[in-house]
Design brief:
CATH class of one domain: Mainly Alpha
Structural class: mainly alpha
Helix content: over 70%
Number of strands: 0
CATH superfamily of one domain: Nucleotidyltransferases  domain 2
């Protein structure tokens, strides 16, 4: 069957079959009509409501998307055939096999309609797949014509083997098609001097990269990162820099993209763009997005960071300036996300931020609701504060910038939309604000300010009320740690029951007590 990476590279299409049929009825080709007539027996099985229908009408605006949707449908159908085969539902296996056969023919016809040229290897794979699909259909038809259990049992292994071969040929063909499309787009980017052609090719490449990590690997292996950085080094394409950098950020989520970035001194190019004041804010913001991507703490490959350290001071300086001068919440989010990631992998970054008065700039930005306007932005700010709070000099900066008040406000962060991603961001804001308070409260002045602002009652409520922390264990642990630190500095601020349950026991015992409330 198709590999998980191939399946994951194609978006899930939620289709209401009747609605899709009504929309696509006038666009159905003969091939699809044949599929409907031959493959829609009256059945008591309930999965007919999930039938997947896709118009094969030639589309000039988004051929590749059509191809990927068709490929996803075929992958899904092959998986379902395997499931029906396991249950010996031979009627369903045959009807679905006919449908796959139709979809394969349609996909190949559609691709050959809009592609300029196909290689000999491509034609061979197409023929192998079509022949194997025809063989598969004939096989399952013969299975319908016998009721002998022993014969069916012996034929089942052959059908399974044929299904595996069909899936294998299909996977190879899709891989080859996507590789050829990436090559065509990159050839246009590298060889065309036309602004319009290059812009169109980069736009298509970006769409391709949005289909998942597998597509990004293909683009990177074919030299996509090299070609895009070449654009970023030519002044004649300045108006395309934002779009080019956005595409680079997508491709550099995979290790192959990172390797290419390292080979072409991509970090030096990004540093040059960020420090060049003649570039637009949009260009600076997209360069910051690439920095945020390649410094993500979630990446397991970090070999590129050695060259990053060489340029870190000027990159950090440029990012702080971008935060300070950001004209929108989106620009601030990208710049602050890059800074937040950078503070994770080197303490030198925190020291540079301290020298640049970054604490003051970030705290001031948080008072502007047009700039720091989402939990996502506050998450980046409090991440930077938490990582900087390991430095002793940070406490005085927090006091001067009214930072304890901000941290207290962040303990009240609530999700208003019900969106899971936003709820997770709110949890991170609460957790990191508690972590920052715990770290900074080793300074008596910060601890005193926190007590005066009633941080202790709020921390107690977060510990005792699961709904206040959205049932988050990480928030609970951080709040217990902060509460214990403040209790040392101000033991009179707690009632005896709170002290006995939340401070005196081992942390793990208090944690278990609170999670059972």
């Amino acid at each position: 069957l198709p590999s998980p990476s191939l399946l994951s590279s194609m978006h899930l299409i939620q289709v209401d079959s009747v609605q899709r049929w009504m929309e696509d009825l006038k666009l159905m080709t003969d091939c699809e009509c044949m599929c409907i007539l031959q493959s829609k027996p009256i059945s008591i099985e309930k999965d007919e409501q999930n039938e997947l229908i896709l118009s094969s009408q030639y589309s000039t605006c988004d051929n590749l998307q059509l191809l990927l949707k068709r490929a996803w449908i075929i992958s899904t159908e092959l998986t379902r055939i395997a499931q029906k085969l396991e249950k010996n539902r031979w009627q369903r296996v045959h009807s679905m096999t006919v449908r796959v056969n139709c979809h394969v023919h349609s996909m190949i016809n559609e691709y050959n309609t809009f592609t300029r040229s196909s290689s000999e290897e491509m034609h061979q794979l197409e023929k192998l797949l079509i022949d194997k699909c025809s063989e598969f259909t004939a096989f399952t038809e013969r299975c319908l014509q016998t009721e002998d259990e022993e014969i069916l049992k012996s034929m089942k292994s052959c059908v399974n083997e044929t299904l595996t071969t069909v899936a294998q040929y299909f996977g190879q063909l899709i891989e080859l098609v996507l590789t050829q499309e990436a090559q065509n787009l990159l050839r246009q980017i590298e060889l065309s001097g036309s602004l319009y052609v290059v812009e169109s090719a980069i736009s298509s490449l970006f769409s391709l990269a949005q289909e998942g990590a597998h597509l990004c690997r293909i683009i990177a292996k074919e030299g996509g990162v090299v070609a895009l950085f070449k654009i970023c080094r030519q002044d004649c394409f300045r108006c395309l820099f934002p779009q080019t950098l956005r595409t680079l950020a997508s491709i550099c989520c995979v290790e192959e993209g990172m390797h290419q970035l390292e080979k072409v001194d991509g970090i030096l190019c990004l540093a040059d763009i960020l420090t060049d004041t003649s570039h637009s804010e949009a260009t600076h913001a997209e360069a910051a997005a690439v920095i945020a991507q390649i410094t993500s703490p979630h990446l397991t490959f970090t070999q590129h960071l050695s060259s990053f350290l060489e340029n870190m001071e000027e990159i950090v300086t440029a990012l702080v300036k971008l935060c300070q001068e950001a004209s929108s919440g989106e620009v601030f989010l990208l710049a602050s996300a890059a800074l937040a990631n950078i503070t994770f992998f080197d303490t030198m970054a925190c020291e540079i931020l301290l020298q640049l008065n970054a604490m003051k700039i970030l705290l001031a930005a948080c008072s502007d609701k047009c700039i720091v306007d989402t939990p996502y932005s506050r998450d980046q700010v409090v991440t930077i504060l938490a990582n900087m709070s390991v430095l002793d000099q940070c406490a005085s900066e927090i006091i001067q910038g009214n930072g304890v008040q901000l941290l207290m406000e962040m303990l009240f962060e609530k999700c208003s939309s019900g969106n899971p991603a936003e709820a997770a961001a709110c949890e991170r804001v609460q957790q990191k604000s508690a972590v920052t308070l715990a770290r900074l409260s080793r300074d008596p002045e910060v601890a005193e300010a926190a007590v005066k602002l009633s941080c202790i009652p709020r921390l107690i409520k977060l510990c005792r009320s699961p709904t206040e922390r959205n049932n988050s264990d990480s928030v609970l642990v951080a709040c217990l740690a902060a509460l214990r630190r403040l209790a040392v500095m101000s033991p009179d601020g707690l009632e005896d029951s709170d002290f006995q349950q939340l401070v005196k026991p081992r942390l793990v015992d208090s944690f278990l007590l609170c999670t059972n409330m």
